[in-house]
Design a protein that fits this description.
alpha/beta, single chain, 22% strand, 5-stranded mixed β-sheet
């Protein structure tokens, strides 16, 4: 009999990261057999996990959640790394490639508030906590009278701060809540049209070493083609804008058969301005669609993306 393959899986150590990594390991076991011991999990603490007192936009951006995992891949300490796709930088080290994406979970944001109040029902001056510039700008666009404040920490920490009254409300990815079994904590779900999510939200992405064909082949059965097309459009949109977590940017693509629809949004940090673009085309042209949408936004910005910060 052929022995099952063995792959070392790298991940951050947060409860959500571990939940997602266990999903990946379970998918590998379904595809190839074997036991958990054949797919050991290596927890790697990232710089982004260690910074809790300031926005990541002031400390280096999205790469703070990936660089230690990248280093472990390059050093052959792990064979693949598991990521929330919205945390993946637009540009990866040349030694690293995105292997693919698991089927996407619901990409909407969840609204969580004390007393079950909706965004529109919050009193003037209420405090909404978030670590996302996008979410803060979208909230301010809808309710400029509210106060937004930095909220770092894992999902449970953020929920606890709402419960304790340290803040009045927050927004979290519904996908993360569902993966942690906490979806019932959502007060409401925000529509994709009014609150388009971060590019990549809801999708688990795997990275591997470039040229590692054996790992590529073992991972192939896990991936979803429609999610791959959607993420290609969203990441191309980000790349065209040179997007990072320093700018409030939203982007979401949906695939229906051979067709792809895309909506992108770039906001000023205070929500006073927003630029929206929509595209529709063939899914196989996903990257071209996303890039073209990003170029349109750039043409409409009087001072470029930096002018919105």
């Amino acid at each position: 009999m052929t022995s099952p393959p063995s792959l070392r899986i790298g991940t951050r150590g947060s409860p959500l990261a571990l939940a997602q990594t266990h999903m990946v390991r379970a998918a590998l076991m379904r595809a190839h057999g074997g036991s958990e011991a054949d797919f050991p999990i290596e927890i790697i603490r990232t710089t982004g996990d260690q910074i809790q007192d300031r926005p990541l936009s002031e400390s280096g951006g999205k790469g703070l959640f990936t660089k230690e995992l990248d280093s472990a891949l390059i050093a052959h300490a792990i064979d693949l790394a598991v990521h929330s796709s919205k945390d993946l930088p637009t540009h990866l080290p040349s030694e690293i490639v995105i292997a693919g994406y698991l089927p996407r979970e619901d990409a909407r944001d969840a609204w969580i508030s004390r007393g079950g109040l909706s965004l529109d029902a919050l009193p003037t001056g209420a405090v909404v906590g978030t670590a996302s510039l996008r979410r803060a700008a979208q909230v301010k666009r809808r309710r400029p009278d509210l106060v937004t404040t930095l909220l770092r920490g894992n999902v449970e920490t953020r929920l606890k701060k709402v419960e304790n009254g340290e803040i009045d409300a927050t927004l979290l990815a519904l996908a993360g809540l569902k993966r942690l079994g906490l979806a019932d904590r959502a007060t409401a779900l925000l529509s994709l049209e009014e609150f388009p999510p971060a590019c990549g939200q809801g999708a688990i992405g795997l990275t591997r070493r470039a040229g590692d064909d054996a790992t590529r082949d073992l991972l192939a059965p896990l991936f979803d083609e429609a999610t791959g097309f959607a993420l290609a459009a969203e990441r191309a949109f980000l790349a065209a804008l040179d997007g990072s977590c320093r700018t409030p940017i939203a982007g979401h693509a949906q695939v229906h058969g051979a067709e792809l629809s895309f909506v992108g949004e770039v906001l000023r940090a205070d929500g006073a301005e927003a630029y929206v673009v929509r595209r529709h085309g063939l899914a196989i042209d996903a990257a071209l669609i996303g890039a073209d949408a990003g170029k349109e936004i750039l043409l409409r910005l009087p001072h470029g993306v930096a002018g919105l910060m």
